[in-house]
Amino acid sequence: MNLLITGGTVFASRYTAEYFSKKGHNVYVLNRGTRPQSKGVTLIQCDRHNLRNILKKYEFDAVLDITAYTKYDVETLINALEKFKNYILISSSAVYPETLPQPFNEKQICGPNLYWGEYGINKLAAENYLLNKVPNAYVLRPPYLYGEMNNLYREAFVFECAENDMPFFLPEDGKLPLQFFHINDLCRFIEIILEKQPEQRIFNVGNPHTISTEQWVKLCYTVLGKCPELTYVNESIPIYEYFPFRNYAYMLDVSKQLAIMSDTKDLSDGLSHSYKWYKNNKDLIRRKNYIEYIRNNLL
After folding, report:
1. Do 91 and 161 have their domain in common?
2. How far is residue 156's CA from residue 243's CA, in Å, rounded to a whole number?
3. How many CA within 13 A on the CB side of residue 1?
């Protein structure tokens, strides 16, 4: 297939580009050309908000829009395309209001979420515009993505603490549930959608079970053969100062995903692969000041 992937230089979009390139597809990546490009892909160098007629000469079997955050992002891309058969938008679990019954399912009415704010509102606007313009498009709503090439300071933060033999500081009782989805599973699911063309257009995607923050940290330390010394931080200290996730408990119902892709990567195995990538790419991590805050305020 001829595939257009937006982005293609960091985490989800880069992994997806390399995944489908290795499968033998003709992968075109759309970005500004300011970062190193993956081998085996063709760069279309342009800002997605200023495409002019650059895409008019191409015909794509699928557009994988991984870097759209707003309606305008989707609108400018669709208007610039000449011919395409499939369009898959990577959206977010942030489109579900926190007041809805959980686990969230695809039939629930979406809207503002107190914890995600404008991010979720913009993602929902992008979804709605796409499905109005391209009714046969697909929308995928993942929870927290993880895995190789993840340059966000999430599992990388815990690995760094483990490498430095630091104690780990958890919010409150350490029971906050987190739901993950490995980037390889996301690519596998995209592949299945392109092959099977299911009638359903919106899918929650993710692991079928949540895991507590305490369990997640222990798994990350175990990858390094270590066991963390855990300390629990009371709610008076803002979680964003020392921990990489929001203080928001939610879960997605992924039964529709499991009906067509029954297996997901084991979290321990996925974290092991994450650490192997992290060890060789520490300079790519977008660090935050968690460790500095911990040393100055919690130790």
Report:
1. no
2. 12
3. 18
| DSSP one-letter code for 283 | G
Q: Provide the domain count of the chain.
A: 2
| pLDDT at residue 70 in the model | 98
Average pLDDT of span 154-170: 97
- Report residue 281's pLDDT band, with 50, 70 and 90 as the boundaries: very high
| Per-residue model confidence as pLDDT tens digits over 16-55 | 999 999 999 999 999 999 999 999 999 999 999 999 999 9
- Co-location of 109 and 62 in the same domain: yes
Write the pLDDT tens digit of every residue in 224-259.
Answer: 999 999 999 999 999 999 999 999 999 999 999 999
Q: Which two tokens stand for residue 30?
A: 């759309």
User: Looking at the structure, do residues 225 and 237 belong to the same domain, yes or no?
Assistant: yes
Do 189 and 74 have their domain in common?
yes
The one-character DSSP state at 152 is B
Contact, 1 vs 28, CB < 8 A?
no
Tell me, what DSSP letter sits at residue 85? Answer: E
What single-letter amino acid sits at 57? K
Q: Tell me how far apart the terminal alpha carbons of the chain are, to the nearest angstrom.
A: 54
3-state secondary structure of 145: strand
- Tokens 């996730």: give the residue: 245
Query: Which run of H or of E encompasses 141?
Result: strand 138-141
Q: How far apart are CA 4 and CA 28, in angstroms?
A: 5
